[in-house]
Prior knowledge:
Layout: H1 3-15, H2 17-23, H3 35-57, H4 64-68, H5 70-79, H6 81-105, H7 111-119, H8 123-146, H9 153-170, H10 184-192
Amino acid sequence: xxxxxxxxxxxxxxxxxxxxxxxxxxxxxxxxxxxxxxxxxxxxxxxxxxxxxxxxxxxxxxxxxxxxxxxxxxxxxxxxxxxxxxxxxxxxxxxxxxxxxxxxxxxxxxxxxxxxxxxxxxxxxxxxxxxxxxxxxxxxxxxxxxxxxxxxxxxxxxxxxxxxxxxxxxxxxxxxxxxxxxxxxxxxxxxxxxxxx
Length: 197
């Protein structure tokens, strides 16, 4: 499964959260939806059906039922350390990468500024401490991946992938989200020079 196969559902899911929460992925509910939501709901179900078929060919379709069950997502949101760790990683990496730019624009104080002011330290020391928080969050993710309990491993892996993406986007103090041209080389490598397996 490529990047587009995994990004399509999350894009559509953001648009149809209410559908997901209320209709539990059952095509039988499509007639109860407003006309403008029917297309999105069907497209979302089709994406998961296609993914399930593709993964079944590889003998790996076990994760699809998890992705369709709201109860599993509620369980993750309540119990998974890796969700909190991922939030921490992405938030801190984003703030470290963009705090100087945001200061110039007069935005709200970033985590870097708040830490600096609260602890009376220099900017560089605040960044080092926040990066330590990122490192500790990675330990939490790794711990949960090595010892999965209530959350199925395939779902924990998706959380890991999101954390990796966020870390990459804001790594080395660069904001590749705002300045997406910075990712041009990596995307080109991925699409034009794939690794041989």
